[in-house]
Design brief:
globular; 264 residues; mainly alpha; single chain; 9 helices
């Protein structure tokens, strides 16, 4: 894939909206998050705490089973994928500070809109009366047990877990699963638009479902499941139209706000 294969930039090639989708720009945007997360994991391990649930934990376990060293293996994979994508896709290697600042602003704006949507859902449905069942607005998009001490507002685990979920759930469900699902549906002779819709729906449903699986999964509840499905579709749209970096930034910012500031 190259710049010309990406969604058309309404302002023309080479502008900000094209630059944000370049893999090298996404990597530059994510680099501080990758470093912060890995250093945070080391710090939490020294405190006998761990944010390693969800996609980050699954991917780390898979790499360990394959013989990869535990420390910094995941960020190396992320960097390698994005650098390879940029090289083989023949993208430009330019990174501008104003582009990175714009991506931060976009991520915060998109996360705020998701928070507003969650507030609207809670206003319509009312707070949950079921013990242990989270309200939509307090549901972060990370896979973390509801009674975990790392989920406490303002805790180190909350901050690090939000960063890890933003990076690695987007890596798994958007950067990897979404194109695979699209290719599979195309092989099943779906048209481009139909394959895109089915890929978005199926990957978003799986994204929501994974939060309820396993011994640390949340209690199944219709509200959080449907909200996460809709959020997954929104993040898929951001991934396609605005790039991997903005999708990660939006996911991490939403988790931090919803799981930290609004859960109290």
């Amino acid at each position: 894939m190259n710049d010309h294969a990406a969604p058309a930039d309404p302002l023309g090639p080479g502008t900000y909206f094209t630059a944000t989708r370049r893999p090298i720009v996404c990597l530059a945007f994510l680099a501080p998050l990758l470093v912060a997360y890995e250093l945070g994991v080391i710090w939490l391990a020294s405190q006998d705490e761990s944010p390693l649930g969800g996609a980050g934990g699954w991917l780390r376990w898979a790499l360990a089973e394959a013989g990869a060293p535990a420390a910094f293996a995941l960020p190396a994979v992320v960097a390698g994928v994005l650098l390879g994508w940029n090289f083989y896709g023949h993208f430009r290697w330019e990174v501008r500070w104003d582009t990175l600042g714009g991506m931060l602003g976009e991520s915060l704006l998109a996360a705020s809109l998701l928070i507003a949507a969650a507030l609207g859902v809670r206003a319509l449905l009312g707070p949950s009366d079921a013990p242990g069942e989270p309200d939509a607005v307090t549901v972060d998009l990370a896979d973390r047990p509801a009674d975990s001490q790392d989920a406490r507002p303002g805790g180190g685990g909350q901050l690090i877990g939000a960063i890890g979920a933003g990076i690695y759930e987007e890596l798994l469900f958007r950067l990897a699963l979404l194109p695979i699902a699209y290719g599979l549906f195309r092989m099943l002779r779906c048209g481009p638009k139909g394959a895109t819709a089915l890929a978005v729906v199926s990957s978003s449903l799986l994204f929501a479902l994974c939060h309820h699986l396993g011994p640390q999964g949340e209690i199944p509840a219709a509200g959080p499941f449907l909200f996460r499905t809709a959020a997954g579709a929104t993040l898929a749209a951001l991934f396609w139209w605005r790039g991997f970096g903005v999708a990660v930034g939006t996911h991490a910012a939403y988790d931090l706000i919803a799981g930290g500031l609004l859960a109290g």
